[in-house]
Design the sequence.
């Protein structure tokens, strides 16, 4: 755990759980309290990683095997860490990332086969960094999937894998939260946006 507090904060959850909205609200709230905050996302967050983002989030659901996706996501994460996350942390900023390695642990590591060990080994080898605090926005996957599909973007490859996949991912995220209770805070994302935002801010302020 970072001795200066939880400065690297990640947001996780099933598709359509409201993470991106909450990430922006959290950034604004922390800035209002005087913190210097960088908001970033995965896959992406650096020019090279953004190029990989289009490869993994667009196209046919069967475009890549889970094993290939693990390699692509890890490559994107390495570039993101080198060029965006670590420099910001070194400069004393609070970094909020919309997804990080826990998404890969769930999406590729658990939901389409038992590949979690591969994800963890690659992460240890190439990234070697966990979040100081992870907020898990938990909600009914059916509602989240409906929200995500309503956005009608090009980045719907994982949504197109269907409700069963989203249900498996929710279970995977909750299992991770149980395995790492010192890092995770589970937030009920099925409530009004303002209520969810207040819970997220409280969780972060308790650790900063």
Sequence:
């Amino acid at each position: 755990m970072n001795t200066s507090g939880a400065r690297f904060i990640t947001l996780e959850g099933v598709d359509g759980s409201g993470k991106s909205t909450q990430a922006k609200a959290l950034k604004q709230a922390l800035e209002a309290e005087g913190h210097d905050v960088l908001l970033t996302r995965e896959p992406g967050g650096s020019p090279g990683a953004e190029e990989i983002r289009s490869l993994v989030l667009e196209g046919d659901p069967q475009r890549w095997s889970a094993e290939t996706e693990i390699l692509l996501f890890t490559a994107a994460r390495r570039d993101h860490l080198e060029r965006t996350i670590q420099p910001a942390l070194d400069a004393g900023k609070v970094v909020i990332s919309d997804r990080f390695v826990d998404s890969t642990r769930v999406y590729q590591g658990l939901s389409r086969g038992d590949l979690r060990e591969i994800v963890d080994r690659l992460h240890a080898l190439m990234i070697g960094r966990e979040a100081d605090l992870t907020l898990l926005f938990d909600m009914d996957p059916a509602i989240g999937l409906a929200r995500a599909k309503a956005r009608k973007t090009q980045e719907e490859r994982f949504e197109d894998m269907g409700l069963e996949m989203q249900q498996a991912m929710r279970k995977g995220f909750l299992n991770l939260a149980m395995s790492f209770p010192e890092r995770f805070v589970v937030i009920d994302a099925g409530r009004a946006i303002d209520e969810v935002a207040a819970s997220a801010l409280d969780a972060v302020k308790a650790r900063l």
Notes: Residues 66-90 form the longest helix (25 residues). The domain at 8-205 is CATH 3.40.50.300 (Rossmann fold).
